Amino acid sequence: MSNKKNKEIEISDSESDDEHDDAGSDRDSDLDSDGNYIGDKELQADFEGRNPEDCDFHGIKQLLRQLFLKSNVDLGALAQIIISQNYVGSVVKQCLDDGQEDDDEDDDGSDGVFGITTVINITKRKDETCIQQIRTLLTTLAEENANDKTKALVNKILSDDSQHVGLIINERILNIPAAISVPLFASLQSEVEKAVKKNMPYSFRYLIWICKTYNTGDEGSEILFANQEEKPLLDEALASFEVDVTEQADLSQWDYEGGALTPCRKILIFDGSKFNNLVRLLKEEVENV
């Protein structure tokens, strides 16, 4: 399948070459609790969305590790599923000219994947080991962190095989701007619609979305979303619950404006018919930033 190219996003760079050379020793301190870069140096590059390919395996797996951390999920097998269904979903790659692409043909691509946006049917694929692990993880996390109503909903949607559940994966390195999510989700929206028309299993009764968040621990304080475009989705969820992942993160907290934020995961559950509306909301969030 030919690669698809989406809207290119340019990130300006205010950093000089000399500053770049002097910054190497500080790189370890520029990582957040998930291992993402959070320094104030901006990169200059153009990015595009493409169909996942075999050469993206290691890069996709690394991004999945950012999301799932040390959870008992076979991330290699999950990456293979994402690649196998490459007619749905995109990876974010750096735009290269023809000469660069020719030079990099033999590269395994492990360092060249900057983001992944896709949806996986965790009902249709429920017999695959890594999907079984994700379903078990969701059930366990709900049991330990959700209220009774949400626990019941999670158990219900994961036990009824007649109503398919889609797992949205929206992960990228932190210094890629939220603006790139707009063409990625527009593409995913179109691909899902085409798949449904072909009677492929992408018509979902429910959607589950795992968001990377941070909080101060203060009751009533604002939740900070690692992916800014996901912020307005919280109010649209049928149910949600939060999981503190401090023990799984390499660093327990992320310094922020003189304080410290605790790394969390916010699990959101949506009516599957609302997907187009979710895409609209995240687009509006990006445009209003």
Automatic annotation (TrEMBL):
Pfam families: BCCIP. GO terms for cellular component: nucleus. It comes from the Eukaryota. Residues 1-39 are annotated as: Disordered. Residues 1-10 have a biased composition (Basic and acidic residues). Residues 11-21 have a biased composition (Acidic residues). Belongs to the BCP1 family. This is Protein BCCIP homolog. It comes from Parnassius mnemosyne.
